[in-house]
Amino acid sequence: MKQRGERVDAIYAGLRLAILEQVLQPGTKLPEDAIGEQFGASRTVVRRALELLASEELVDIRPNRGASVAKPSLEEARDLFSVRQDVEHLVIRRLCGRLTPAQVKRLEAQIEAEERAHRDGRPEYIRHAAEFHLVLAEMTGSPLLARYMRQLVGRSALILGLYGRPRWTDCSVQEHRDLVACLVSGDWERLEPLMHDHLEAVLSRAIDTASRDKDRGIRDLLAPYAEALRGG
Amino acid sequence: MKQRGERVDAIYAGLRLAILEQVLQPGTKLPEDAIGEQFGASRTVVRRALELLASEELVDIRPNRGASVAKPSLEEARDLFSVRQDVEHLVIRRLCGRLTPAQVKRLEAQIEAEERAHRDGRPEYIRHAAEFHLVLAEMTGSPLLARYMRQLVGRSALILGLYGRPRWTDCSVQEHRDLVACLVSGDWERLEPLMHDHLEAVLSRAIDTASRDKDRGIRDLLAPYAEALRGG
DNA sequence: ACTATCATAATCGTATACAATTTTTCGGGC
DNA sequence: GCCCGAAAAATTGTATACGATTATGATAGT
């Protein structure tokens, strides 16, 4: 047998990635047996991984009914985004004007990776863009803030996959550059609205279009039935 | 057999209370067998409860080495308190001037329970005082903020038990009344420093005395050796 | 043809068994 | 008397078994 809970981590990481990359879409059932067979592990281990994912609300576990990929409601999405706005605000307040040269270098590398992926049309650029915010949180030196940001970013990705438009041309690379510039120069007055608008663009716009689409979707869903009645 | 995961919750709640009331002190080993026998459940269930507690960092699980009550370092304590300051700030910013009459009533009831317990010398007053902050967070209507506050409050209690002085006469009842008054009247200018100082008094003072005690403790620890050298 | 009810299959919740690891204890050597 | 090493005990990690619950499909009644 292998050592440690290394197998749990592997399954946890694998499922997490699959969820965040939308290979496993919200609502998908996650039976313990099937996952266990896929990863070559027993239900005991799979269960632990699923519970870990549930603790950061990426999967939903209902008693006697199994686990499924979380499917946040619009209300939950709005709550998440408003809290994320606040927490990101805390992060940049702690970092503004306090970045070390090494940290600046790290951020530039992160942005460049994002840009390369974006230019080449690889889908990982989304993950890189999300990671940018996580790296910022880690740079505060507060493990707690980093922990919370990790959860918030993960859940944001889930929600964007659910409600966001399929391919929305993303200008976040330049915005990320601007954010770093303000953080370095300590220009708080410019930094604050910049971060706010950046998140607003990425998050809230996705949600607003989602509620429009959802309403339209309901009508579309009913249309065939109405026509069937008229036609029959 | 019973139904649902009701047994897991019972063990989780029991252990949590025991930890927060310092019946189980930081560092105490938590063997799965012993707990299972005590609660009349198998290791499987106990394990789940321990993992839940680990996910809010009240217990520490190390691979192949079992679970023990978490023992936060001074550094972790400082991180926690600084994040809690920020999150409490978010909470009152959302509530200031927006409390409904029903909410005010709920808060007054909470404070009164705290005061009664304090006057009668019952130790639950600590739990009531902590719960006050949790209730505030819940009143924001943000499940996420409430969730985070629950974790922060729980861990704060653990840390106060570790580093706080044994019996420090607490004036939080009046401070809580003042906070509610400001929240009702919407007096942000007074509210903000009030909350900050309140937390500073409860949290940081405990930590500062702790680091003093710790230094003294090291000297005390070395004293016998020094004397032994001199005496021998 | 449609719905209701029951049998069957799938899946979860918990207990238990066994392997792997850590901790403790005991005996020999310095 | 003290330290080091190996066997024994204790404890965790994982797999499997079985009862309980829910989902599914078939059959009979209307």
Question: What descriptive keywords fit this protein?
Answer:
homodimer, 232 residues, mainly alpha, 9 helices, 4% strand, globular, DNA-binding
Describe this structure in words.
2 copies of one chain form a homodimer. With 232 residues, the first copy, chain A, is mainly alpha-helical. The first copy, chain A, contains 9 helices and 3 strands. Chain A has helices at 6-20, 32-39, 43-55, 74-95, 101-119, 125-139, 143-163, 172-185, 188-231; strands at 29-30, 59-62, 66-69. Chain A has a 3-stranded antiparallel sheet with strand order 1-3-2. In chain A, α1 packs across α3 (43-55), α4 packs across α6 (125-139) and α4 runs antiparallel to α9. Chain A binds chain B through residues 4-5, 48, 51-52, 55, 63-64, 76, 79-80, 82-83, 86, 90, 142-145, 148, and chain B through 4-5, 48, 51-52, 55, 63-64, 76, 79-80, 82-83, 86, 90, 142-145, 148. Chain B binds a DNA duplex (30 and 30 nucleotides) through residues 1-5, 7-8, 31-33, 41-45, 47, 63-66.
Topology:
The structure is a homodimer of 232-residue chains.
Chain A: H1 6-20, E1 29-30, H2 32-39, H3 43-55, E2 59-62, E3 66-69, H4 74-95, H5 101-119, H6 125-139, H7 143-163, H8 172-185, H9 188-231
Chain B binds a DNA duplex (30 and 30 nucleotides) through residues 1-5, 7-8, 31-33, 41-45, 47, 63-66.
